Amino acid sequence: MAVYNTSRFIEGLLKTTESSPPSFTVRLYREYWTLNNGSKFLYNNQVASLLDDIRTRHIPVDFLELFDTAKLPFYEGCLIVELHDFRPAKTNDPDLDEPDKTRVVLTPNDESRWADICLMTQKTATPWSDAEALELEARLLMTTAPPLCLEPDVHLTRMVNATQRATTPPAPPSLKRKASAMDQEADEVEKARRVKLSQYMNPRTRTSAQTCVSRWYNQVA
Questions:
Q1: CA separation for the pair 176, 39 (Å, rounded)
Q2: Residue 134: left (phi > 0), alpha (psi -120 to 50), or beta?
Q3: Taking all residues of the chain, what is their mean pLDDT, rounded to a whole number?
Q4: Do the Cβ atoms of 4 and 167 come closer than 8 Å?
Q5: Cα Dmax for the chain
Q6: What is the pTM of this model?
Q7: Residue 111, CA atoms < 13 Å, CB-side half-sphere
């Protein structure tokens, strides 16, 4: 049952690698973000898709080749990302002098495993056939996947499903938008806009609005 406990695995991995360097570091500022000590990126840049992958806690497939070239450290097949958040809680406040530091674990999925195999085939002197690549993928799944239950049991299935639901971390908020007073103000503006649209689409509201405009026009004329 322990293999189905995602939270326990992540907590254990973070504990054992507490003194180890992270795979990479992301620094979040009000208007931009940086990867390690590299260039600045805007939140609407194409590279910002990396933040979406960090949010979903999955290894970013589009960056695997770059990570492989940079020889980033992997820990038990996972990436450990350290987040330094310098963004203030309120809009008018300056950036934080000391960031909020957290570590998250990015786990592999089927897409990233297949991308890993493709990278491995590129490094071999003789390209692998499709059958060889599929054989390697099957062995990886046999090694990393939870044990297959060949004797289905309703109660055991319910226990496994309940364990997975209880231990799988919920999707955190997007790194591109911070849950703060800044977002609350934006949400209030968005709510007001939706109310205005709904009123505009309401026939009764539209009639009263048209009446007011007609009265104003008659007074001016």
A1: 17
A2: alpha
A3: 76
A4: yes
A5: 86
A6: 0.64
A7: 8
